[in-house]
Amino acid sequence: MSKVNLSLPAVQIRETRINSITGFQGGAEELVGLSRCGVKDNPRSFTQCVGCATSKAACMTILVQDGAVISHGPVGCSSCYHDFAFTYRVNSPLRGVEHPTQRKIYSTNLTEKDMVFGGNAKLANAIREVYKRTGARAVFVLTTCAAGIIGDDVENVCDEAEAELGVPVVAILCEGFRSTVWTTGFDAAYHGIARKLIQKPRTHRDDLINVINFWGSDVFTDWFAPFGAAPNYLTPYSTVESLTRSGEAAVTVQACSTLGSYLGAVLEQEFGVPELPTAPPYGIAQTDRWFRALGKALGKEDIAEQVIAEKKAEYLPQIEALKAKYRDRAAGRPLTAYVTGGAAHGHALLSVLGELGIQAVGAAIFHHDPLFDNGVSDNDQLAQRVRDYGDVPNFNVCNKQEFELVNVLRRLRPDLLLARHGGMTLWGAKLGIPSLLIGDEHYSMGYEGLVNYGERILETLENDEFVKNLEKHAVNPYTTWWLEQPPNTFLRQRGNHEQCH
Ligand code: SF4
Q1: Would you say the pTM of this structure is higher than 0.90?
Q2: pLDDT tens, position by position, for the chain (501 residues)?
Q3: Which residues make Cβ contacts (< 8 Å) with residue 396, sequence separation at least 6?
Q4: Ligand 1 closest atom vs CA 145
Q5: Residue 440: how many CB atoms within 10 A of its CB?
């Protein structure tokens, strides 16, 4: 278990805190085994692109309903933040936010002159101005590489502004160069929120359950109702006030443990809210376990059994009917699919495939956490996938290296590509592979999620004319030379096997 230390302004980065890696090529079962004995990262000697931690911190703060966000750096570092204003607006109906307000996103626009003379005064003025314009209940300041390089004292500027304005001003130290694992940005945002916003609980409530998630649809209100509880979503669509109360919840559950690993540990270690000690509910077997663990945590095991029985009676026949349709479609052979996505949610989609009887022939997963911050092996979604549905070959830990994805897809030619992030499905489509992108991480969750997702898979397979035509006309930017190389050509092997055997 990693040790949380909220007295430090910056969170410890993932690669040192929980030994996360961004390079591996092999089998999923092999990686699960290696993860228990100190897996080593296999760095790439060539990298096409990487993500940045600031954008991950941004998505966990911009979507706080009554907050404002300032990127302290060159304006280009915040050039992707408008995406989250779009996400906030289009997904708000899924969370019952009827009148989504404009997102409050600003940049201090550091210039060359500021790089010489420092940006502290500019930041202090920006915080004042943003508060004057927005009246935000909290101001989040996200740092960038430029601010880190010149050593601006962001923590101190934020503290002084907080004293002056009387609202929380949260320094989030998330410079892109701090970590090779961009999900460190989630941790940085949660670290700042835990230090400044979450309050020590005066009471513990058994009718409130923390749900750490992105912006997925509100499935948890219905799921928790039989237990007499309601979800407290963290942090998209939360309010500053609801964040302050998260220390009072009975338990914390995750929609994606990669996302919420650190915040779950913070809530448990610093505020006494236990994290559910099992992986999120994707696939029938894991959904059974998840509801049982929830029932146990709430002291309501009988209700959990009742919920499981009712839901199974309703959804299992529909799941079987879908599987029969897949079998008809594949004419005697299993359908095959390839998954690309972030770590735990990518693993979850592999479980969904396993449950639907679709053979996972490979995956490109953006990074790998050997164990999450709570150190509980039952929270390991990849281990759960392997245990319940078997190995996944061609398992590539790959931080969105699209040149590797194209190479692999061209070799494997699966019947279907599943993606969780925009910009990835186009590569399957250009190769004529029916490709499905679903951004709602709750869509495939639980028994009903298998039906939801299974139906979308069927639609995607049945409507393949567009991708077949696209393949005939698409121009592939990669050379024949590269496409004939092994996809892991640029991965340096670091002797994991010797270490573990
Ligand atoms: S990596 Fe650094 S310079 Fe690039 S966008 Fe992120 S914070 Fe800005």
Answers
A1: yes
A2: 778 999 999 999 999 999 999 999 999 999 999 999 889 899 899 999 888 999 999 999 999 999 999 999 999 999 999 999 999 999 999 999 989 999 999 999 999 999 999 999 999 999 999 999 999 999 999 999 999 999 999 999 999 999 999 999 999 999 999 999 999 999 999 999 999 999 999 999 999 999 999 999 999 999 999 999 999 999 999 999 999 999 999 999 999 999 999 999 999 999 999 999 999 999 999 999 999 999 999 999 999 999 999 999 999 999 999 999 998 888 878 899 999 999 999 999 999 999 999 999 999 999 999 999 999 999 999 999 999 999 999 999 998 899 999 999 999 999 999 998 888 899 999 999 999 998 899 999 999 999 999 999 999 999 999 999 999 999 989 999 999 999 999 998 766 655 565
A3: 24, 25, 362, 363, 364, 365, 404, 408, 487, 488
A4: 2
A5: 18
- Token readout for 260 is 């919420």
**CA 77 – ligand 1 centroid, Å:** 5
Report the residue among 54, 55, 143 best suited for mutation to probe ligand 1: largest number of ligand atoms under 8 A from its CB: 54
Which pair of tokens denotes residue 217? 């649809």
**Choice from 49, 141, 177 to test ligand 1 binding pocket (greatest atom count within 8 A of CB):** 177
Residue with tokens 């998260």: 246
Distance, CA 258 to ligand 1 centroid (Å)? 22
How far is it, in rounded angstroms, from Cα 372 to Cα 18? 7
Report which residue type is found at 361.
V
Domains recognised in the chain with CATH numbers: 51-179 (3.40.50.1980), 208-295 (3.40.50.1980), 316-500 (3.40.50.1980)
What atom in ligand 1 is closest to the CA of residue 146? 3
